[in-house]
Amino acid sequence: MDPKMDRILLATDVHPRSDRVLERAAMLASALNAELHITHVTESTSEDSHKIARSELDRFTGDDGVFCTAIPAASPLVPVITTSAGTAAEVISDQIADLRPRIVVMGLGRDFTMTKIFTGSTVDSIVASGMASVLVVKTRPVYQYKECVVAFDGSTQSRLALETALWVAPDAHITIVHATKSDMTRRPEQDDVEDRISSHVRTIITEFAALTSQPPRDFTLHIEGGEPIDVVLSYVRKENPDLVALGQTQKTGLKTLVPGSSTSLLLAHLDCDTVVASKPG
Question: Which residue has the higher pLDDT, 149 or 69?
């Protein structure tokens, strides 16, 4: 394990839709020159269960250990594959603590249903832990992300969302979506909000570009009056981006229904891939 390389942790239960998660994780690791670690969690401690899980994962690699993907990788990718028994959230949390990945890639898996919005799915638990940023893959990848929407309110969490989007989607066009309670029908107030958010976003992008030795990215700003969850959902459904970036709210289940805590509800209702940013502790 190279301490100088970014690490991506892919957590999978190898359900029928997990191939899209594996493809996206491999695509990111190859494009970003990151180590890919794959962990499969099984609730059974039997040796047979581990063998079955490993054989399911091994079908995605060749005899030389190179990851086999439907979309050719930029360079050969040899993932580190492990299987573990236990509760999914606990095993993945242990892996995050051990590997300290830049991002965790997950699918909704077998345990995510609309009912789980209220009790907390594995994805919800990992997101709420705040141990790492989480990319939830919902669609089958065919190319790197091209259109990314960042929900931005000026908070530290939304700054992390923007920085994570810039890293995960280096070639994507960025649209900043900001919900406001200001009267946007009045020109002075509209100009003030636009100037304030644009200046803040431009500063973040410039600082990120300096750290990565990349030119600053252009962005589009969309400001709309209303509640954040309504504004984000409305814009995403209209524009159909392939990635949405959110800040993490550290709440699960019914707690997400309190004002200002919309991350889990957005995760449930957004149809596109969604990254929830968090700064590791």
Answer: 149
